[in-house]
Amino acid sequence: MIKRITSSILVGSLLVAPALQAQSLTDYESCNVDLNNELHLDGKEVEIIDREGHRAVFEAKGLVINGESIPLNKEQQQLLDHYRVQLNNDIPKAREVAQSGMLLANEVLDDVSAKFNDTDAFDNVRQAIADFYAKLEQRYYQNGEWVLKPNAFGNMFDNWQQDFADAREVFNREFFASAFSVLQEQMASEEGINFTELQKQLNDLKISVEKKLKEHSSEIAGQAQDYCDSMGKLAEEEKSLVETIPELENYQLFNI
């Protein structure tokens, strides 16, 4: 019983704490670009819906506004096609920023599994994190389309901050249970375990986890900032597009 209580204290103080103290996106400077209208992307076409429900659809064959095909010259069609492709390529990259948290959690679990010499011990943690991020994706991905509402980017930083906090909570809960289970198994198969050595190993593990969390939090913040910068470039491209195709004036996607 003493061994089990001691192991619980060690795991709680040395493993769970660093995950709770994971760095936030403090290096992220926030984004000055936001969405003015609702955006739908299916990988090919682009649909923009204004606040009155009017629709502009960018198709491979041209531009359709409220069901009416808008004639375009060659230059206009080329600019529209390029912008359509860029939106479908760049907007969904927000998913990569969000999933960086899942990749980080799995890297940490790889390290911990190696130290415990049990590659399957934390499978439940991996599954819990994967399920968590699958639910996050449903926020923007609906019925085969990416759907972003007006002002989506204005809340994105707060969303990411909260998402990572919630992910850490899931990680901590599942990780603690698994780590404690592994230690119980080790103690059941070993007699006279050296608690001094165990504490040293756990402390080394704590330092390793904290280092990885700190390093990767900066990377994630950089990814978030890069994403924002790419949205700024799209906004500039849109500005040129609207100057070339005046019919799109009421369907401008970005606010700066």
Give the topology:
Blueprint: H1 2-20, E1 34-35, E2 38-41, E3 46-49, E4 55-59, E5 62-65, E6 68-70, H2 74-90, H3 94-116, H4 123-137, E7 141-142, E8 145-148, H5 156-189, H6 195-244, E9 254-255
Antiparallel strand pairs: 1-9, 2-3, 2-8, 3-4, 4-5, 5-6, 7-8
Helix pairs in contact: 1-5, 1-6, 2-6, 3-4, 3-5, 3-6, 4-5
**What is the overall shape?**
elongated
- Whole-number total of structural domains: 1
**How big a fraction of the residues is strand?**
5-15%
Structural class computed from helices and strand pairing: alpha+beta
Write out key terms for the chains shown.
single chain, 256 residues, alpha+beta, seven-stranded antiparallel β-sheet, 6 helices, elongated, disordered N terminus
TL;DR of this structure?
This protein has helices at residues 2-20, 74-90, 94-116, 123-137, 156-189, 195-244; strands at residues 34-35, 38-41, 46-49, 55-59, 62-65, 68-70, 141-142, 145-148, 254-255. With 256 residues, the protein is α+β, with helices and mostly antiparallel strands.
Task: Give a description of the structure.
The structure is a single chain. By secondary structure, the chain is of the alpha+beta class. The protein has one domain (34-255). It is 62% helix and 12% strand. The strands form two sheets. It has a seven-stranded antiparallel β-sheet with strand order 6-5-4-3-2-8-7. It has a two-stranded antiparallel sheet with strand order 1-9. Helix 3 (94-116) packs antiparallel against helix 6. It is elongated, with a radius of gyration of 24 Å. This is Chemotaxis protein. Keywords: Signal. Residues 1-22 form the signal peptide.
